[in-house]
User: Fold this.
Amino acid sequence: MEAPPFTPSYSPSSLLLRRKTPLTVTKFSRSPNLKTRTNFSIRASSSTDSVVTLLDYGAGNVRSVRNAIKFLGFEIKDVQTPEDILNASRLIFPGVGAFAPAMEVLSKSGMGEALCSYIEKDRPFLGICLGLQLLFESSEENGLIKGLGLIPGTVGRFDSSKGFRVPHIGWNALKIAKDSEILDDIGNHHVYFVHSYRAMPSDDNKEWVSSTCDYGDKFIASIRRGNVHAVQFHPEKSGDVGLSILRRFLYPKSTAAKKTGEGKASKLAKRVIACLDVRANDNGDLVVTKGDQYDVRENTEENEVRNLGKPVELAEQYYKDGADEVSFLNITGFRDFPLGDLPMLQVLRYTSENVFVPLTVGGGIRDFTDSQGRHYSSLEVAAEYFRSGADKISIGSDAVYAAEEYIRTGVKTGKTSLEQISRVYGNQAVVVSIDPRRVYINDPNDVQFQTIKVSSSGPNGEEYAWYQCTVNGGREGRPIGAYELAKAVEELGAGEILLNCIDCDGQGKGFDVDLVTLISDAVSIPVIASSGAGVPDHFSEVFAKTNASAALAAGIFHRKEVPIQSVKEHLLKEGIEVRI
Assistant:
């Protein structure tokens, strides 16, 4: 039976939220000061070849790494004390979240010193994402923060001024720099990245670099020295390719690694996302449904909720079919207490056991007071979703209210769900879902919101339109446009926008290219086009005519009208890079 993850008496979120000045922690030198460190006792490890020691400091979605390790046939021993690190036969550190709170936990708990000692002894180690960044001397995230100092260099933010969207989210290609061992079976396939900060190769750290990736600049995608490995991407979210990388680390001498075949990855791929709108039907069972302009009930005498399948089974099928991400939207979450929605949390937990691509969940992520008077912050709600298997959370109505207040006052309070969650988990973990409705007008001067000249005239010959944002599942219009909302939430900490369109929802006539163009040109964060897909041509159209980074569909996949693989094959024929 597993021990619970290491839990400090303080939480990284509370430390970060109450800090008023940039955090500075002790830098761990690489070797001269080893004699002055605490003398941890090292005893013979009782670990067997089937046990992996996992350093989980309590932030973000580590469940996916756990599930991948178990999927590959290994048991997990959680780090409880620094000695557990020193006694490990193999150690995985899946760093998730922001650099500063992670570094503070490592410093205060003594884990940082033990980690440095373990790595300096060339023990088997795999760092993932933040688990790579923390090995460097410092990071510019949240001010200049000192790291473990094992690898020369400072982790800096991507430069969005070059036209590249930040965060870097999606499936990109690697360029192998030297014998990497764990990357031997990658075969020119894409792997999944989600980060805003990266380390750059230099003469000082070139002996560490095993692969790089191009995204505006060439950054370090992985490092290796002896038995020490770390990757910026997420192998646990990179499908079969990622599992092969983990297998290579866990079975370094095995020749039985699963071959993934040869790929054609050359750059960041456009993503095809499967969305599952989830709600309870009239019998209380959780089902996947699909709306027609957000109406999810059948046009029958019974007026029952449209039932298109079971969430976990559909998600697993879409993963096998090649979906680049799976998104769950709890479409009644705006009126229910989200942490009381245990079936939805169970859906995430079960799905993450066998689905090794990113999972996003949305619905009801906001501050909440339950019937007993207990107050829950949006940060606590998000934390439970992350612990249950979500990689990203999607915020809807709460983001609209936050944006309205920010536009009205010009003040970032730091108390909104957007600001709190992005500060602790990083903005790459926060998606804002925008649900706008098209409003036709004759003259752009008739409204205070950003308008566009539409490609098809309105019902009365109108040549212009603005997009009114809604809340509560599209039921209530708000005095804010989609353009204004997108600009505001980017400033408040959103890392990605899921752009729906009520007018196109369920119509199968294509994405609202006018809307997607308006929003994707207005922000520097990735935009996911949603609502209206009916045939593969609609995907190539939105990618060719707009700056969308991804396109999402639901009904055509649920009803098996268009297979995901058919969409990808079509995109390839059109010269659009996708993951195969």
Confidence is low (pLDDT under 50) at residues 1-47, 293-298. The first helix runs from residue 12 to 18.
